[in-house]
Cobalt-zinc-cadmium resistance protein CzcA
Amino acid sequence: MQERLADVELPYNAVPGLNPLTSPTGEIFRYIIESDRLDLREITELHKWVIIPRIKQVIGVADVSNYGGITTQYQIEINPRKLEQYDITLADITEKIERNNVNAGGSMLSQGDLSYVIRGIGLIKDLKDLGRIVIKTVNGIPVYLSDIGTPVYGNLERKGVLGFTDGVRDYSDGVEGIVQMLRGENPSRVLEGVHEAVNELNNEILPGGTRI
């Protein structure tokens, strides 16, 4: 849209612009996630990859913001002696991780009237996947990342902490979601859809002991 606006001929001193999808009063729903089984990292991942995508499917929802929690990092605690033993540099490790953490397209496979899209799924899913990356081979034997270091979970530096209390619950460190409505939508209809999505998540999707 910005590129198209740049090509439009406007009167002198006219400055084009785009309004945001939401207004300052577009916030219509807030929620927290509580769980007696998941830690803060797992709750944050669940929110970003399961809860937010489901709520954003509701017609009239512009966005869902995440507040609190932690952003997971995959970290490798390297053993310097192993680097020297296998003649490996940190640059070698970085290159191998980058090359082994991608998806790849594979064109189409046609069978009769049907066509199948072929994709190679290569993104790292957990610490085990990270540790199984081959850094080099020595005399035909692979040297895995786990042979020269220990993959561990870490997190980005936190800029703040979300606290919540309502007289019943008292969380000193939690995760909150804020739902924003598209400009011009009917709040009652959008809220109804959000409540339906929350009920579906609580009753059918979220793991036991975890609720919105």
